[in-house]
Amino acid sequence: MRKPVIAGNWKMYKTIAESVETALALKPLVANANHCEVVIAPVFTALKTVADRLEGSNVRVSAQDCSTETEHGAHTGEVAADMLKDAGATYAIVGHSERRQFYCETDESVSRKTRAALAANLSVIVCVGEMLEQREAGDAEQVVSQQLRGGLGGLTATDLPRIIVAYEPVWAIGTGRTATPEQAQEMHAFIRRVFREEHSNEAAQDLRILYGGSVKPDNIAGLMSQEDIDGALVGGASLKADSFAAIVNYNR
């Protein structure tokens, strides 16, 4: 049985004080959420403080990105995966569509970041997803397959338990548009098939695949009812403790 993951990506919002306030407000609201793993991803500057304040709770902390580099050195502006681990992170998000679209990330850089995060003993949420024009052209599966094979190729059986895939159709991120549960299920099932081809049936069955793209309290239950949807990567709705808690507690 795959344990769901509900992760909140706070993007470039919230000062340290605001991050702590939201994290502490969230903590009691999800304290009994034993049905899933609860993760929040504050900005780098708040990571250590938030992780410290959540110590002993069931809320884990994720970095929103990590460096491709594993050796400390002259990489101005970068943060190494082991530094994120040292700051209290348990997860790292890599390959988010905003990183690919606005910061020129490629499948190769996603692969390097994934390996760096794994080497630091972080679990990795690897994002994939197509743009609207690619879906309308009938290329969605080809795009997602290429991202999966390019970003996750060559991983070992030891690596796979710490890999989580987040399917985020780019046309649904921050737009208010959401893939229907059936559309999301179709792509999640496809992702599992690709993983089976690349690795093994067992690895594919164990892989947790999250949906991201305008997830809200009123659509999470429908998404989670689908066979191959194992959680959500939540953007805007994770910025308020009550709305994110409502998503976490979708089964109540």
Which assembly state applies to the chains in this document? single chain
CATH class: Alpha Beta
Overall pLDDT: 95
Strand composition percent: 15-25%
Number of domains: 1
Explain how this protein is built.
The protein has one domain (5-248): Alpha-Beta Barrel (TIM Barrel), CATH 3.20.20. The chain has 252 residues and is α/β, with parallel strands linked by helices. The protein is globular, with a radius of gyration of 17 Å. The model has no long low-confidence stretch (mean pLDDT 95). Strands 7-6-5-4-3-2-1-8 form an eight-stranded parallel beta sheet. It has eleven helices and eight strands.
In short:
This protein has 252 residues and is an alpha/beta fold. Helix content is 41%, strand content 15%. It has an 8-stranded parallel β-sheet.
Task: Set down the secondary structure blueprint.
Layout: E1 5-9, H1 16-29, E2 37-41, H2 44-53, E3 59-63, H3 81-86, E4 91-94, H4 97-102, H5 107-119, E5 123-128, H6 132-136, H7 140-152, E6 163-167, H8 181-198, H9 201-206, E7 208-211, H10 220-224, E8 231-234, H11 241-248
Parallel strand pairs: 1-2, 1-8, 2-3, 3-4, 4-5, 5-6, 6-7
Helix pairs in contact: 1-2, 1-11, 5-7, 7-8
Characteristics:
single chain; 252 residues; TIM Barrel; 8-stranded parallel beta sheet
